Amino acid sequence: MSQEKVDRYKQEKVNRKQIMRKQKLMNNMRKGVLVVVALALIGWLGYSAYDIYESGKERTVSEVNYDAVSDYLNGLNAEGSAE
Predict the structure, then answer these.
(1) CA distance 72 to 67
(2) Distance between CA 16 and CA 9 in Å, rounded?
(3) What is the DSSP letter of 69?
(4) Whole-model pTM over 0.90
(5) What is the chain's Cα-based Rg?
(6) Which residues have C-beta within 8 Å of that of residue 19, sequence separation ≥ 6?
(7) For the residues of 8-64, what is the DSSP string, one character each?
(8) Cα–Cα distance, 40 to 33 (Å, whole number)
(9) Which end of the chain is more exposed for a tag (fewer CB within 10 A), N or C?
């Protein structure tokens, strides 16, 4: 081996713990980002599926009779103009 390779090997050996710690940290960060992306994708797919399911359901329609309210308002208007 040339002297350059020997020096590089010695330098790597001295910094091996720092290099390993840095690689471990980067691997954990990659895994964390992948987990967050996977959870976001699963949540989005679940929400989309639920939305499609809900949009296919039949909705109930209610009729409201406003005759009593209209009569009351007309009665108030009649009293106001009579004064």
Answers:
(1) 9
(2) 10
(3) H
(4) no
(5) 37
(6) 12
(7) HHHHHHHTHHHHHHHHHHHHHHHHHHHHHHHHHHHHHHHHHHHHHHHHHSPPP----
(8) 11
(9) C
Q: How far is CA 24 from the centre of its chain?
A: 28
Query: Is residue 40 a contact partner of residue 47, using CB atoms and an 8 Å limit?
Result: no
The tens digit of pLDDT for each residue in 52-81 reads 998 888 888 888 889 999 989 988 887 766
Domain parsing of the chain, residue ranges: 1-79
Tell the residue number behind the tokens 């009779």, with chain if given.
65
